[in-house]
Amino acid sequence: MSDSQIRINYFKAAKYFGYLFALFLWITAVQAENFESSDEQLITAAEKGNLPMVKRILETEHALSHATINAALFAGIKKGSRPIAQLLLDKGGDANYRGDNGYTVLIQAARDGRASLVELLLPLGADVNATASETNETALILAAKRDRREVIDLLISAHADLEIRRNDGMTALMLAARGGHQMAVHKLIEAGAEINAQLDHGATPLMLAAQHGHLSVIYVLLTANADLNIKASNGATALTLANAYRHSEAAEMLRKAGAR
């Protein structure tokens, strides 16, 4: 046999065995999928927002554990699927279930701005003032931080505590003010949030807004009679912060309102 024929046969064999290897990998993957437990399939289906699959598993599998139902519920909440969440809640899912990230399902829904899910969970007994395990953030704190206005309305209507502080002392109003979220600030003030609340070092919502030059938030706070001249522990006021961070328009607005 010539060298060229040997090489041809070698490449044919390599191609053939390559095909067999690919076929082996495919069979292995199919078998792994088939061997996946119903529990794993349910959680995966919820993670992907696969409503038909979730329905099928719930209808055919009657030995699913509460842990599986709740894990799938949290996955469905993160995906933002109200139909999936509703199915799992109807199957005994816990409206106060807490995921591995330390958030309850309500906190997760509020954080992500899922108003329809917040609306679903609240009447089922979800604790509106539950706090995240590590940060002490509530649903309202995260909604205010991220300017989730519709969610803020729902939480306020459910009597969310406006003054709970996360671990660094920030309230919902402080975070909204710092973030420049005018409508969130307005909603929280209208609901009765403490407008002159202070951090340990003395900063107020007005100081936080001035430091970041958020004119619309400063206007809302001034209209609500925020104290212009409260001093932080270092002696700073809203005006001195606006000047220090070179927010000239904010400084002018504060001066016209009587700040010193």
Task: Give a verbal description of the structure.
Helix 14 (238-244) runs antiparallel to helix 15. This protein is 60% helix and 0% strand. The radius of gyration is 28 Å and the shape is elongated. The protein contains 15 helices and no strands.
Sequence-ordered SSE layout with sheet pairings:
Blueprint: H1 3-35, H2 38-48, H3 51-60, H4 66-79, H5 82-90, H6 105-111, H7 115-121, H8 139-145, H9 149-157, H10 172-179, H11 182-191, H12 205-211, H13 215-223, H14 238-244, H15 248-256
Helix pairs in contact: 2-3, 2-4, 3-5, 4-5, 6-7, 6-8, 8-9, 8-10, 9-11, 10-11, 10-12, 11-13, 12-13, 12-14, 13-15, 14-15
Count of discrete alpha- or pi-helical segments spanning 4 or more residues:
15
SS elements, strand count: 0
SSE series? HHHHHHHHHHHHHHH
Rg over C-alpha atoms, rounded to the nearest angstrom: 28 Å
Biggest beta-sheet profile:
none
Structure class: mainly alpha
Name the shape in a single word.
elongated
Subunit arrangement of the protein: single chain
